[in-house]
Amino acid sequence: MVDKPKVVLGVSGGIAAYKACELLRRLTESGHDVRVVPTAASLNFVGEATWSALSGNPASTEVWESVHEVPHVRIGQSADLVVVAPATADLLAKAAHGLADDLLTNTLLTARCPVVFAPAMHTEMWEHPATQENVATLRRRGALVIEPAVGRLTGKDTGKGRLPDPEEIFEVCRRVLARGVTEPDLAGRHVVISAGGTREPLDPVRFLGNRSSGKQGYALARTAVARGARVTLVAANTALADPAGVDVVRVGTAVQLREAVLKAAADADAVVMAAAVADFRPAEYAGGKIKKKDGQDPAPVALVRNPDVLAEISADRARVGQVVVGFAAETDDVLANGRAKLARKGCDLLVVNEVGESRTFGSEENEAVVLASDGSETPVPYGPKEALAEVIWDQVAVRL
Ligand code: CTP
């Protein structure tokens, strides 16, 4: 029998502690042995009984409980992953400075496994230089500090500082565990990913669109976060949950997508164009709904070209050494068309896949070949879109 992966769930004293109950559930239900280590302050929000009942393990706060088991050393040493959710400004400061005045901070010093912090606090506290420097210190040492989400905070405030959805924090934990003790190889990198499919409006109710779900782009965003990158996801008409730690910019049309991608790409180390961008848009937009007229044939729809974002970014790299990745969805002569497209677009990598009504669009799996401008070809067998995403980041990482 294989031992269950050991996860330490650290909970510090913020109102978002209640969301950690859901994260704990997801971790235990998916076969992890979870030990919750709450701080004393966090017990004001969620009590010890909840943690021990949900985890099936004791939940202690101080190093003075069960001293004969030397918990302040053993819990950290034996963990496969430590995740602190929520991580308050105070906890991040203690971790950055190596303080060890309770069981959680002791555990953080003894752990040699990957450590994930999911901060949650008010925007002012998050943006304060003290917090930002502590976060930078933790990241430099190899910890994964997930960017907080933007939205409603405690009270009436809104802004950056929300704890991401527990399900999305779980997704980060799952990927980090799968990677093992490898350093986050995209740490300190900014990557921009476009996802979904653009819609080109004909009138206020109709548009020309395509069948892209955005799942491949979202898988790229999630895997990049787990590898330590700062991620901007330009999402065109997707209906998927915001991945934890990702800055999501929502767009509708190809022109809007171009604007958002170019803006984010200005300081990006890599740009991955996974979105299905419409090559054409209606030449005219009818301000009112187009009505059918009895006895008259419908008027033809005139189209004009949209800008080619991938070609533009490949030609005008905003940064020296920026890696640009395109996708090619082909129905026939897949590899030959892919190679020609790689040359035409001028990108570094082109991920070629075969599409059809029942293939790729909206599905969880994908099969592809990653073509590189240096002539190499990496076939990726049929499997989860996440596995393809990992291969793409492997290829990007070696070129950075
Ligand atoms: N793309 C883009 N801007 C466009 C069209 C496409 O940036 N206006 C990007 C896509 O995001 C994708 C790549 O280009 O990464 C390939 O898109 P595709 O539509 O397959 O290529 P085309 O050059 O339009 O070729 P064709 O329609 O002839 O297959």
UniProtKB/TrEMBL annotation:
CTP binds at residues 279, 289, 307-310, 327, 341, 345. Residues 6-175 form the Flavoprotein domain. It catalyses: N-[(R)-4-phosphopantothenoyl]-L-cysteine + H(+) = (R)-4'-phosphopantetheine + CO2; (R)-4'-phosphopantothenate + L-cysteine + CTP = N-[(R)-4-phosphopantothenoyl]-L-cysteine + CMP + diphosphate + H(+). Residues 1-190 are annotated as: Phosphopantothenoylcysteine decarboxylase. The keyword Flavoprotein applies. InterPro entries: CoaB-like_sf, CoaBC, DNA/pantothenate-metab_flavo_C, Flavin_trans-like, Flavoprotein. It comes from the Bacteria. Pfam families: DFP, Flavoprotein. Its cofactor is FMN; Mg(2+). Its EC number is 4.1.1.36, 6.3.2.5. Keywords: Decarboxylase, Flavoprotein, FMN, Ligase, Lyase, Magnesium, Metal-binding, Multifunctional enzyme. Binds 1 FMN per subunit. Residues 191-400 are annotated as: Phosphopantothenate--cysteine ligase. Pathway: Cofactor biosynthesis; coenzyme A biosynthesis; CoA from (R)-pantothenate: step 3/5; Cofactor biosynthesis; coenzyme A biosynthesis; CoA from (R)-pantothenate: step 2/5. Residues 186-397 form the DNA/pantothenate metabolism flavoprotein C-terminal domain. Catalyzes two sequential steps in the biosynthesis of coenzyme A. In the first step cysteine is conjugated to 4'-phosphopantothenate to form 4-phosphopantothenoylcysteine. In the second step the latter compound is decarboxylated to form 4'-phosphopantotheine. Catalyzes two steps in the biosynthesis of coenzyme A. In the first step cysteine is conjugated to 4'-phosphopantothenate to form 4-phosphopantothenoylcysteine, in the latter compound is decarboxylated to form 4'-phosphopantotheine. PANTHER family: HOMO-OLIGOMERIC FLAVIN CONTAINING CYS DECARBOXYLASE FAMILY, PHOSPHOPANTOTHENOYLCYSTEINE DECARBOXYLASE. In the N-terminal section; belongs to the HFCD (homo-oligomeric flavin containing Cys decarboxylase) superfamily. This is Coenzyme A biosynthesis bifunctional protein CoaBC. It comes from Streptomyces avidinii. The gene is coaBC.
